[in-house]
Structures are given as C-alpha cells and as structure tokens.
Design goal:
Chain A: Keywords: Oxidoreductase. Chain A: Residues 34-98 form the Gfo/Idh/MocA-like oxidoreductase N-terminal domain. Chain A: One of its GO terms (molecular function) is nucleotide binding. The complex is a heterodimer of chains A (293) and B (330). Helix content of chain A is 34%, strand content 29%. Chain A has 293 residues and is of the alpha/beta class. Chain A has 2 domains: 3-100 and 243-264, 3-Layer(aba) Sandwich (Rossmann fold), CATH 3.40.50.720; 106-241 and 277-290, 2-Layer Sandwich (Dihydrodipicolinate Reductase, domain 2), CATH 3.30.360. In chain A, the strands form 3 sheets. A 7-stranded mixed beta sheet of chain A has the order 11-10-6-9-8-7-14. A 5-stranded parallel beta sheet of chain A has the order 2-1-3-4-5, sandwiched between helices. The longest helix of chain A is centred in the last third of the chain and has 20 residues, at 266-285. Chain A starts with a strand and ends with a strand. Chain B is of the alpha/beta class and 330 residues long. Chain B contains 10 helices and 15 strands. Helix content of chain B is 34%, strand content 26%. Chain B folds into 2 domains: 4-122, Rossmann fold (3-Layer(aba) Sandwich); 126-282 and 310-327, Dihydrodipicolinate Reductase, domain 2, CATH 3.30.360.10. In chain B, helix 5 (102-115) runs antiparallel to helix 10 and helix 8 packs across helix 10 (303-322). Classes of the chains: A alpha/beta (293), B alpha/beta (330). At the A-B interface, strand 6, strand 7, strand 8, strand 9 and strand 10 of A face strand 7, strand 8, strand 9, strand 10 and strand 11 of B. The structure holds nicotinamide-adenine-dinucleotide. Nicotinamide-adenine-dinucleotide (NAD) is lined by residues 9-14, 34-37, 40, 72-75, 77, 95-96, 122, 124, 178 of chain B. Nicotinamide-adenine-dinucleotide (NAD) binds at residues 9-14, 34-37, 40, 72-75, 77, 95-96, 122, 124, 178 of chain B.
Chain lengths: 293, 330
Amino acid sequence: MTITVALVGNGGIGTQDHQSSMYGPAFERHPLFSLVDDPAAAQVLSIAVPLAERGAAIADAVRAGKHVLADKPLAATLAEAVEIERLAAEHGVVVVPAHHQRFNAALRSATAAVRAGRVGLPWNVQCDFVVAGGDPAPTGELVNFGLYPVDVVRALLGLEVRRVHATGSPDLVTLLLDHDHGVTSTIVCGRVPALRDLPPGGLAVHRYRISGSHGVLAVDARKPALQVRTTESNGLVWTGPGTVDALLDVLAAGIASGAGRAAIGPHDAVRAQRVIEAAQRSMETGQPVETGE
Amino acid sequence: MDRIGIVLVGAGFIADAHSGAIDADPRAELIGIVDAAPGRAAAFARKQGGIRHALDLDTALSWPGVDAVILCTPNDTHAPIGLAVAAAGKHLLVEKPLATTVADAQRLARAFEAAGTVLVAAHTHRFYDYGVAVKQTIDSGAIGRPKLVRLAILGGWIWPDWSAWVGDPDRSGGHALHNGVHLLDLATWWLGQEPTAIYARGRKQTAAELRIYDYLEMVVTYADGATAVCEMSRAHRPGSLAQRELLVAGTEGIVEQGWDGESSLVFGEAGTATLPAAGGNGFAKQLGAWLDAIGGAPPQMPVADAVRAVVLGVAVEESIATGRPVAVTA
Ligand SMILES: NC(=O)c1ccc[n+]([C@@H]2O[C@H](COP(=O)([O-])OP(=O)(O)OC[C@H]3O[C@@H](n4cnc5c(N)ncnc54)[C@H](O)[C@@H]3O)[C@@H](O)[C@H]2O)c1
C-alpha cells in the first residue's frame, strides 16, 4: 500500500516553484508514495503556495486531518508556525517542513559522528551556505534560505540557539549564534552571482567545520559527488540519494509510525524561525538579540 | 651604494627568519645582535659568524654603520625600545603588533614622523604568496566588489608552558594583539575598506586557566557593508594539523582556498599533517619592502595601517569582554 499525495500550489517566494522542480518529481519517483489529483482523497498534501498564504493553507490541511509536506519556510511568521505546531499535535498528523539540507548524506553521517563523540565535545561550528545565480528572493536570502544552515547546525549540535548577532546584508549575511555550554556557531549565508559550470541556484559553497575538544570534522556538503570534467564542462555530479528523497523517507516513516511525528517537525520550523527573526532584529539594531529559547 | 647596516634586537624564535632575510639581500648587512638575556646575544652572534653583540640597545646604537633596527622582542617592549630607536634617528622594522595599546602605537607613529625615519610593522602575511595572490585577484576586478572575507588560521597549542610571555596578557596584549592583528590587517588590506565595527568571541579551549583566548573569532564590519570573519586559533585538535582556509565573495565571483589549497597532506604514523608548499620567502619580501621605503619608495605597510591593526585588536578584546559589538574609528 502506498501513501497518497496531492500537490497543492506552485508558488513560493518570488518566482519559486519548488513543487514542480523538487517535491513533485521526488514524490513521483519514491516507491512509498503515489500521486492523486484530488486533495480531498489524499492522505498527504504537498503544500507549496506563496509564502503569504502558506501558514493558513497548512493549518487548514491539518484541521482536515491531512499529513503535510510543507515548502520552506513553513510560514511567514513565528506566530503562524507556533500555531501549526499546536494544531499538528492536536490532530495527530505529521507535518514535515522541507528543511531537506539536514538530510544530506554527508551531514547525516556528520551528525551521527558528532553524537558518537568522534570529535569530543563540540565547541564551535563554522558554516558557509552560498548559492550562485538563480532568481534573488524579494524577501532577501536570510528569509529565503537562512533556515537551511540554521537547521543543519541545530541538528549537528543538538543545541538550541540562545542569542544571535547578524551583520552583512539580507543577501549575504553572517549569523553569529550562541548555544548552551559556551558553544558558538557562525553561518555565512547568501547568494552570489551565477558562476560558470554551476547550475543557476546551485550551491557554490556548502561546508561545515565542527571543532571539538578532541578533533575537527570538516564536511563539504556538496558531496558525496564525482568530479566530472569534459571538453565542455567541469562540475560535481551527486552520488546516492538526494536530500529531498531522504526527506520523503522521513515523511513516510513518520506516517508509518502512527505517532503523528516524524524525525523533523513543526517545532524545528519554529526554532529556525526564531533565529531568523532574531537575526532580522539584530540587523536593524546592530546588537545581539536573545531568541527567547 | 652603501649597504644598510642593521641591528637585530631579540634573539628568540623569530630572529632567524629576519637574519635569514638580511643574509639573502645584498642591500642589507647585519651589524650585530642585542638580547637582554645573558648569553643569548653572544650565542646568536657566534652562529652568525662572529657579529657584534650586546645586552642593551644603547650600546648597539653606538656601533659604527648602524642605520636601522629590527625589533623582535616581546610585544610590551615594542613601544619603549621603538621610541629609543626613533630618538636615535634610525629606521625600524618592528615585529607585530606595533604596540599593545593604541596610545603607544600613536606615540610611535608620531615619533618616527618627527624623526623622518621609516617605521614599518611586520605584518608578514601581506608578503606571503597567498596574501599577495588574493590581493591581486581582488584588485584585478575579477570578482567585482568584495563583500565578504573569511579567513581562518588554525592550529594547536604552540606555546611551551605557563612561563611563556605570550600567555601573559600584560606582556603580549592578549591573543587579538599577538596573532589576531595578522588576520585583521590582511582582511582589511584585501578589502581596501575602513572598518566601522567589531564583534568578537573568544574561547579558552586548551585550559580554563588560560589568561588569553586560544581561539578567537573576530568579525569586522566595513564602511561599505562588507564583512570579514577572521578566526585565529591555537585551540584546534589535533595540534599537528595546521590549517588555513579562505573565501572571498564579491559581486561578480568568489575566491576560495580550502585547507588543502596549498598543502600536501602527510598521513603518517604520528598523525596527519599539512605540508605547506615551498614558494616565496615572506620575510625576505617584507625586508625588501622596508629597504625600498628607506630608499624613498612608498611603504607597502604604512604606519597608519599598523596603528589601525592595534585599534582593531584592542576592539576585539573589548568586544569579547562586553559581549557586544564595538564601534571603531581608525
Ligand atoms: N611576523 C610573524 O609572523 C611573527 C611570528 C612570531 C613572533 N612574532 C613577533 O616577534 C616578536 C618576538 O617573538 P618571539 O616568538 O621571537 O619571542 P621569543 O620569546 O622567542 O624571543 C624574544 C627575545 O627577546 C629577548 N628580550 C626580551 N626583552 C628584551 C629587551 N627588553 N631587550 C632586548 N631583548 C629582549 C628575550 O630574551 C628573547 O630572546 C614578538 O613581537 C612576536 O609578536 C612575529
């Protein structure tokens, strides 16, 4: 028995259509899901409506007892995200925000290695998440994809963010995060112009350095990949499953568990949104901002 | 033309790099060596084929043929010894930091200005191959206007024990002034912008009892909105694995050099280590630029930049102490 999915919406921030470019094809090729046309007949709704309408659309789906795969960010405001978290718990449905970068194969094994003490007690993470080309987000890239590296750092450390200082511009921002136990992390996140041999909107730099009391873990999250060079081009070719495929595995497992929860849920979106909003306040005031976590 | 006669002051760790540079430059001659610790100057002099040696600068300044001084003593001695060099009308190449306080840095700048002699601080990374190559790439316009610099110089603990002056903030000025200034100056030089604010975080990783931060993260904001994230570490494990990483993002492209960008890796029984490429001698180029400036050329490391590096280093320590960004004006 496969899980039925209906695709709802083809919008996002600016010109984005992640439904057609990412979620639709991933559901189509995933063995545990089958697409249906009628949302009313589907168990799962894949919701990618424009950001301004997204929170309400997801809340309606949850109230109707549907599981949800939600384009990122889950909602335009923290208040909406918190409400979705509450509703999902009340209705016992699985809501998976598309924070798919944490399911990158290299980052999954990195997270496991940190948890297993391979670098000792981690004390700092440095991350660069730099996209090249594609359409700039009218909201600024902090709102558009800042949550990806924030979510990855939370997953790597298993520690919430207490304080945020941000500098730069919304298109290329530096986030300085403080966690418990004196642990710090730094995220450079943004968009640079299109670069040769990179697909538009592709990641030019995506890396993490986790420093611990007993070692360092350096992760190039553009891999696992092959370096392919031809007379025409020079580029990396992914090996293994993509991050969205892995996200759908998590969604399927969450639904199958019957517990109304998956390995990632609305609380992760709430946590990320708190950091992004604190970063926005920090950019406005020039001062560090507490997240209230 | 007569060779420029140089006295080295401080026969410690870094002195050999300077004497090696002098040996390699036909325009310079090492006249003698000064060190306050009995025996050190004499031993250094013997190694150099029997040059003059002394326990104090005054004696050395009276030797015939002395035009200039290279100062490689602990950081807190740079100001008093440097002022004596200015008063004697000699040129000075002073190890970084120029001084451990902004007031002393400015005092030195004024003294050499008044004496009409050349003062240069040894921000050697400006003369390393990578430092030059990044600067040339940015200045060529290839990546447009630079908006972000990331520079990390990471290593393990290198200072011997609790007696090391580097671990004493009164003597070294703290790690931001001791090593942090290298990165603060380099990133600022690459960007060609004026810094406006610093936000820094520090950590005492090797031991809680340290009096300096062995890990520093120094984030500089510039007048045009650019950002530099500079990490200076003696806290990383394993201590055998020295790493340097850099990324510059501009409006038209990026420049990157990862930890494997210049070095080979040795996978040995004793652990894994990077093996830096041979390449140019930064100390020789630095000496050459100072000699050029003595000859009348514009300095490649202007005094104002050395003062600014001290301003930034002091701001780093203040930001760590307060947990807040610190406004800077050079
Ligand atoms: N440019 C670089 O890359 C670089 C690298 C290392 C050190 N340095 C700088 O070089 C300087 C020296 O560092 P080091 O590692 O060689 O130190 P060191 O401790 O190895 O040597 C310092 C020497 O100065 C002598 N000394 C101390 N006080 C003196 C005084 N008042 N008069 C005469 N001699 C005195 C000491 O006896 C010792 O021999 C410092 O300013 C340091 O910041 C620069």
